[in-house]
Amino acid sequence: MSIRPDRCLFFSNSIQARVTLTVAAVSVLVVAVITVGFCLLVRHRIEAEIYQETRRVAIEWIGSMEHGRIPPPAPTARVPLVQLVDSRGQVVAAGPMAGDRPLSTVRPTENHFDDVTECPEGKPCIMLTAARVPMFQSREFWQGEPHFVYAGTDQPPALRGQRLELFSALGGVLLVVLWTWTTWRATGRILHPIDTIRQRMSEITAHDLSLRVPQPSGQDEISRLGRTANETLDRLESAVTRQREFAAVVSHELKCPLAGLRTGLEEALLFPEIDAREAIARSLPAADRMQRIIDELLTFARLRNTPSSLEPVDLGALVRAEAAARTTGVPVRTRTEPDVLVLGNRVQLASVVTNLLVNAQRHATRQVEVSAQRAGAQAQVVVQDDGEGIDEKDRERVFEPFARLEAGRRLDPHGSGLGLALCRAIAVAHEGSLCLEDSPHGAHFVLRLPLMTG
Q1: Residue 105: inside a domain, yes or no?
Q2: Is residue 424 part of a domain?
Q3: Of the candidates 134, 129, 166, which has an alpha carbon nearest to the alpha carbon of residue 147?
Q4: What 3-state class would DSSP assign to 209?
């Protein structure tokens, strides 16, 4: 009979099959040891009880031989075979069931007992104890000729042949089969949810991330696996959705300056009377806007969880330097504490402060306030303007890439909408945060970074 290759592959790759085979092999070993031990224990226990009784019968009969009189044998229900045999093998006295032939040819020495099993040809085996009559009794009755007493019984059916071993082995096989079958079913039940999760995961594609895997109830490993898989799919779907939205917004933002640039160039080609240098000069602002958007996109894409070129940065000194560089626009008033040290990238942190100051000056009426101070285990930079402020419903939206409010479009029509998104990405990369908080007037930006320790 040949074995199909696909079935061999299933057993080699299936956890259920491997676990079942392993348990079967271990159970065979364990059951074999238990079966052998059980057989030895049972056999020893039965033999010990029988030989104890045969010895008692033999000793009592020998002890009753005194005063020149040999009493008849006294067999019992458990020891029906009792004989007295001389040194020549002649039966001197015997019980009614012992017969006239010696039960054994064993000749033990004085004060010694031999427990033997005799199996005459064509007859059931006999378990008996052979005992030698003491010397002083032999002199009294037979002038010193050795005589022997045999007391025995038929071998119990459980010990005949290999019945005990056969039935024990059969029970062991049934136990192994039951154990293996139970393991196969239990492993299948345990792995069934995993197989269901695998099948559902195979149905999920990049075009449809809305499917979720079945989530078993409970708190075991498989339940946690299902929850983790669904949480991962949620994050993946959100990330893909954001990526698609981001790509759409990028395409839209680049399409406008590209269209203006193409229009100007096509106009110069279609109308020879238009001065080429003048047409190129009109197209340069669109090209500059495209370059600025692309540069900011590259910076946004290069940010990772951990910024490069880390060094101790004094946020107070950094804020003072960036505020001093803002010589145009509304004045900037600074308030800083000494030694507000963080571990980060100086250039990136400076760009955050600069972006926040530029944004605040654009929306401020008379003044911008910026402070750098300690707040527990964090460094805190606060940029406050006295402008119109931002509605609470738009406080998170302003940090989205290319998101621009109406006031921002009016005050900076050529902006890309990536400045605040870059600022937040830099803050997150430094294990910090950037958010808008409540303020009685104007916008209140708060940058928090972990203080440098040690």
Answers
A1: yes
A2: yes
A3: 134
A4: coil
Enclosing domain of residue 268: 221-302
Q: Are residues 4 and 147 in the same domain?
A: yes
Q: Residue type at 62?
A: I
In this structure, the answer to whether residues 316 and 295 fall within a common structural domain is no
H or E element, residue 359: helix 346-363
Q: Which structure tokens are listed for 260?
A: 């203006």
Asked whether residue 212 is domain-assigned, the answer is no
Domains contained in the chain, number: 3
Pair (242, 123) in one structural domain: no
What is the Cα–Cα distance from 209 to 423, expressed in whole angstroms?
30
Task: Using CB atoms within 10 Å of the CB of residue 97, give its burial: 0 to 12 exposed, 13 to 18 middle, 19+ buried.
Answer: exposed
Per the CB < 8 A criterion, the answer to whether 60 and 74 are in contact is yes
- One digit per residue, pLDDT tens: the chain, 454 residues? 454 555 544 445 678 888 888 888 998 999 889 888 888 898 889 889 999 999 999 988 888 887 778 888 888 889 999 999 998 889 989 888 888 889 888 898 877 889 998 888 878 888 999 999 888 888 888 888 899 999 999 988 878 777 778 888 888 899 889 988 998 888 888 878 888 888 888 877 767 777 787 877 777 777 888 888 888 888 887 777 767 766 666 666 667 677 777 887 887 788 877 777 887 787 787 777 777 767 766 666 665 444 467 889 999 999 999 888 888 888 999 999 988 999 988 888 888 898 899 888 888 888 899 999 998 889 999 999 988 888 878 788 888 776 666 655 555 555 556 778 888 888 888 889 999 888 888 889 999 999 988 6
Last residue of a domain, one of 169, 203, 237: 203
CATH number for position 259? 1.10.287.130
Instruction: Provide the 3-class DSSP secondary structure of residue 180.
Output: helix
Residue 393 burial (CB count, 10 A): 7
Do 5 and 112 lie in a common domain?
yes
DSSP codes, 83-98: EEEETTS-EEEE-TTT
Q: How far apart are CA 302 and CA 393, in angstroms?
A: 29
Q: How far is residue 83's CA from residue 72's CA, in Å, rounded to a whole number? A: 10
Q: Is residue 214 one of the residues assigned to a domain?
A: no
Asked if 372 and 316 count as a contact pair (C-beta separation under 8 A), the reply is: yes
